[in-house]
Model the fold of this input.
Amino acid sequence: MRRLIVILPVAAFAALIGVMASLLTDSERNNDPSRLPSALIGQPVPAFELPAVTRNLPGGFSSADLRGRVTVLSIFASWCVPCLAEHPQITQIAETGTPVYGLNHRDKPEDAENWLRRHGNPYTAVGADLNGRASVEWGVTGVPETFIIDADGRIIYKHVGPVTPDALNDKILPLLRGTRGG
Amino acid sequence: MIAEIGQYLLILTLVLAGVQATVPLWGVARGDAAMMRLADRTAIGQAVALLAAFAALTHGFVTSDFSLEVVFQNSHSLKPMLYKVSGVWGNHEGSMLLWVLVLSLFSAAVGLCGRNLPPTLKARVLAVQAMIGLAFLAFIIFTSNPFARLTPAPPNGAGLNPLLQDPGLAFHPPLLYLGYVGFSMAFSFAVAALIEGKVDAAWARWVRPWTLAAWSFLTAGIALGSWWAYYELGWGGWWFWDPVENASFMPWLFGTALLHSAIVVEKRDALKSWTILLAILTFSMSLLGTFLVRSGVLTSVHAFATDPERGVFILAILAVTIGGALTLFAWRAPGMKGGGLFAPVSREGALVANNMLLTVAALTVLLGTLYPLILEAFSGGADRVSVGPPFFNSTFAPIMVPLVLMVAVGPLLAWKRGDLAAAGRKLIPAAIAAAVVIVATFVLKPDGPWLAPLAMGLAAWLAAGALVEWTSRIRLFSAPLAESARRLSGLPRAASGMTLAHLGLAILIVGITGASAWRAELITTLAPGESAEAPGYTVTLGDVSRGQGPNYNFERGVLIITKDERKVAELFAERRFFPVAGQTTTEAGIKTTWLADYYGVIGERGRTPETANKWTVRFYLNPLVPWIWLGAMVMVLGGGLSLTDRRHRVGAPRRAANASPAAAPAPAE
Amino acid sequence: MKTLRGLLTALFILSVAAPAAVHAVQPDEVLDDPALEARAREISAELRCVVCQNQSIDDSNAEIARDLRLLVRERLVAGDTDEQVLDYVVARYGDFVLLRPPWQPNTYLLWAGPPIMAIVIATLAILFLRTYQRSRNASLGPDPLSPDDRAELDALVERVAATTRTGTGPSSTFRAELADGLRHLDHPENSEDSLGDDGANTGPDSNPDPDRDTHQ
Done:
């Protein structure tokens, strides 16, 4: 009996080491610590309505626009450096034919307009979320974030942080193809 | 050049550690006294070398040598000298160097002062210390070299974080490490005892001063960190159950348990295996904390990059040291002979209960801290939960209540078989004091949470109980004063140290209760001359002036606090902007009185034309908060007092000689 | 040093993200109704700032924290109960946002952990001590002294104790301690000095308690 008890600490400790080792060697976790699963996966698109950013940008959209076909929602801002890094990838998504809607998060309208003019505007429509309230409806914690919505208006995927070429090719594009085909 | 010397010294220390980890053990096996004594010299050698290496690193910071990568990242030419120096340990590499330095200082201390230790035990203890040092020196040299150079050398540094330029924060790490790492001594003693195969009262007597010292330092370090958070972070919080805080609290809880169970080993030769396990667990918690904080395994959603390579290295060190010690324990502990028997109601019984409660408390904190990680690992990242202050507050406090109740009773119970009724009778004054305090608190503060008077009563019970025990020991009110004086001079300092430490705990509880239960707050915007009402007080914003500090611009506002027309406090609150770092900090204006802290903060100016003349003002009344740190200080004093007990200097008794006449007819253990 | 970095991270993020404010709840967020405001503060203390290392939205200055504080107040003003407000936020951010982990299958072990550990440790301790005591008692024989001898020893101890109870010099102190020790040997429950006088029980230089237990 005593032998059993004295083995307990080593056993518990070994289990703990196992847990830590698995966490540390999880390359996905290390490369993307922002891998917080979204509470909204599988949920319908939250209700929201966004006005246009400026008169010059195709603008304003609401939850109704995200129904009927597969769409992508991109949360971005002109002051966000990783957003610039992911911009080519977002443009690529738009070029596949999937409508990409831009939620301009807490940005000055003129700044957003200038940014899009400089770097290109891949968005079907851009909505202004000046105070961040609509972003909260989407469970947004920072920028950039990207959502894939299926034709029924359900959120099927969330990507936190910039969309890297790997993420684009390994996850997003396959999902888009799959969802459209299915 | 000096940095390169530092580098060589690190390697030299590594070699010395390697020697110290092997040769003395070989010497024990061969009975070679010279080889065993070598440990003393290598221990001192390591300490000297690391002191010199540390000095070399400090030189780099003091001279702002930005060709050193750590100096570049953590310092700046404009930093005041005090903070250049404290910047040495304000980063990963430098603090790891401090870690091994403290380890080597403890080893050297044993090498120098452990004259009473049997040579075999001493050799083994120092060998185990050297093994730990060897592992971490390798970690430093291969993954976290403080002397790494940067070429080309940048013209100035990147580290001018204003938050780090604070005296409280400057001294918090060294104190913490003296505690944290000091528990390595208890660990080494425990492993040495397991290797020897025996634990006796003498062992407990030798372990005690080191454990006491480490415990005292850790208490001071934690208290200092808590105090810093309170006055610097600007909203009067002082404990957040942050994983990093928990990482220092868990060794403290186990260390407290260890201090108490070692008493039983010393006095009654019982609870030996358990005490060994505790010694291993305490330092294991220190190591686990080091791992959690530096490996990057605890991340938040949009966190900085993790450092898994370093994490894996430390994890490997943990696996070998802790795993090795616990395996050794599983193997050798059953073979250890048990000691004295005792009745459930006895001093030993009370100390066992103390240990159980502290262990459950420590494991609860551990569970809460690690649970999100465990869940994440088992669910492959799908399940994410947060375990925050609400969990810890709900679970920790209920465990502490029975413990504190017993702290008053335990010292009044006899060894081996205690008389609970007699102890109870002695504690009647304490019960009365508690009742009086509960009622008084309720009368004075009827609106607060109903638990608060009970908590105050608990503190009164503890304080009165500690005093009852102490006064009864010196027969203060039952015998002539002369006799009390005689008894007091004969009383071992450890006894008074215990009383002081328990009193400190009572004071701490009072402080925590006040801070949690009766805080008053006011958040508003005021123009100079305007006032607002806080519960019981009027807060007026006086002048707001601008100025310049050594490396910052500031806005200073005066908050005048009045109660019933009488001015009770004038608080100078500042907002500082550091142009080079581009950051803003706030310095709260705090007036500390015996009963409360008046805490004032000035925020930013209004940004619209209408509000341009108004500043955000926050005023907090924090009742009894200073008692938190006062209580901690008294606990540290108690620990320090116990350390000066002459029995620690005299050394362990030779128990065999004393016991033989009395035990002649008794069967052997 | 991660202790610094942890606290630093919080302030870093807030300084970078919100160069304006350096503190948590802003005056313009405070609701007019003090009861609602108090509820808002309590609820905020239960919600995690998901971009900070370990802060509630009440304590954090991050932008998202402010957004959530405003959201909480908006929902309270709209008439939600505390539960409903929390559910609203959890629906969007997941369980991760709750600082108090909910009671659900994946946290049963967490909440049940402390009581279970307490019971297990207590049981282990009691079992272990009891089997140990029993095995020790079994190995001890009966009282080696005959009843007459024991009575004589008791009388002797009493006489020594009686003669040394008075007096304060060192030899009488020693005799008193010796008497204490002898008395404690056989009748530990009768020794009134067993706790007060350090010499008898706790000093290194005095007679330590022998390990013989002559009572059942």
